């Protein structure tokens, strides 16, 4: 039997490199990697047009895709997680405390950006802030085009980057992710971000989820065996990098292992007006369960 080829977008992480260099492989499937940088540029084409067969997907985008019945199947695979409080920054010349953010302007690439969702969730948890009392300034729309931002979100069509807006005082704080600036020009808004993040992990026992993996619904219907083989590959590659299972890990697998973290994330999204309705965890993973629990075609 010839191996099925899946057009695949995954970031380059320690736990995915064995897939990209071919040292972990499967006779039933070949992952045809497409390099998209930054990886979030693959999300809209995936949820709107099934542009890829297998694609990394931010969890907020994934949950919106489920709620709006977009043509993707969310697999129980987390490929990227991180602690988020340090992603909220201010200019060093204009520091601000988290509790002083109501009435201020905070920039974020998109209101639906997953890092932004987590930062807002932490502001609510830690300080009881009303996120609707903060003016959220964005550049990008949602990847899932059916979603409309709340009224307290303001879209900026200018050419300035978030960092330039912060330098010029157009915004009071900004949320960044993989594009965090180096040097001491900017400072975290949470002075004790690391301590708070570790305390959060000790309480919840998972790292805040950034990206999961989704498959094209069309491919799932046409070749579920290839999706099962791809899932096995993802799991095997991550197992090679397992590290200390009792500590924070950036990856996680399995429907039951993800039940609590995904339910927590759904609740956070609902509080922030990110979902039109509350999907259950069983609904989120029902299509994947049908594929992964079926051992033969």
Automatic annotation (TrEMBL):
Highest taxon of source: Bacteria
Protein name: Phosphate/phosphite/phosphonate ABC transporter substrate-binding protein
Organism: Luteibacter yeojuensis
Organismal lineage: Bacteria, Pseudomonadati, Pseudomonadota, Gammaproteobacteria, Lysobacterales
